[in-house]
Design goal:
25% of the residues lie in helices and 39% in strands. The chain has 4 helices and 8 strands. It has one domain (26-167): Lipocalin. It has helices at 2-21, 29-33, 59-67, 129-138, and strands at 37-45, 75-84, 87-95, 100-108, 114-121, 140-145, 150-156, 159-167. An 8-stranded antiparallel β-sheet has the order 5-4-3-2-1-8-7-6. It starts with a helix and ends in a 6-residue tail after the last strand. The longest helix has 20 residues, at 2-21. With 173 residues, it is α+β, with helices and mostly antiparallel strands.
Length: 173
C-alpha cells in the first residue's frame, strides 16, 4: 500500500510539473520594446502576412509608397521601465515619412494590452502608408511578438490589422 501511495505521488508530481511551469507566460515587456529602434516591414490584416492593399489597385501609388520605406521612415523608439505587475511603460517617438509621432506607452506582459497615448502626431504626406502608420498607432489595442519581431494590432471598424516591425540594424554592420 505504501508503494502504491509513493507511485501515485510521483505520478502527480510528473503530471503537474508541466502545468505549473506553463503558468509563467508573461512577456518581458521592457526587453521587447526598449533598447532598439523598430522599423515597419509591412501592415496587414490579422491572419494574413502580406501588405494590405491601401492603394486599391493603383500600382503607381503603391510603388511610390514602397519607395518611402527607407532610412528613418516608419520607425518607432520606446524608452521606459518595468512598472511592476508585468507592466512596462514610458515614452515613445517615431516618424512616418514627413510626420512625427510621440507620446506615452504602457504594455501588459500578461494580457498583451498596449496603450499608446499620442501627444503629438502630424499628417503624413504619404496618404497611403504614412496615413495608415499614424492612424494604426493612434488606434493600437495590443501587441504581439518578442525582441526580434513586434506586431502592433489596431482596429479599423470590424477589421483588425497589425503593423509588423523588426529591429533596425546598425548601419555599421
Amino acid at each position: 500500500m505504501k508503494k502504491i501511495k509513493i507511485y501515485i505521488q510521483l505520478l502527480l508530481v510528473a503530471l503537474l510539473t508541466p502545468v505549473l511551469s506553463a503558468c509563467d507566460q508573461e512577456d518581458d515587456v521592457v526587453d521587447i520594446f526598449t533598447g532598439k529602434t523598430w522599423y515597419m516591414t509591412y501592415i496587414a490584416v490579422e491572419g494574413q502576412n502580406k501588405m494590405y492593399d491601401f492603394w486599391q489597385g493603383n500600382e503607381d501609388a503603391r510603388i511610390q509608397s514602397f519607395k518611402t520605406i527607407t532610412g528613418d521612415n516608419y520607425t518607432l523608439t520606446f524608452d521606459g521601465a518595468d512598472l511592476g505587475n508585468s507592466t512596462a511603460g514610458g515614452t515613445f517617438s517615431g516618424r512616418a515619412t514627413s510626420a512625427s509621432i510621440s507620446g506615452q506607452w504602457n504594455a501588459s506582459g500578461e494580457s498583451r494590452k498596449l496603450t499608446l497615448d499620442i501627444k503629438n502626431a502630424g499628417t503624413d504626406t504619404d496618404k497611403y502608408l504614412g496615413k495608415a502608420f499614424i492612424e494604426g498607432l493612434k488606434k493600437a489595442v495590443r501587441y504581439g511578438g518578442d525582441n526580434k519581431n513586434l506586431y502592433i494590432y489596431y482596429e479599423e471598424g470590424q477589421t483588425v490589422k497589425f503593423i509588423s516591425f523588426a529591429p533596425q540594424r546598425n548601419s555599421g554592420n
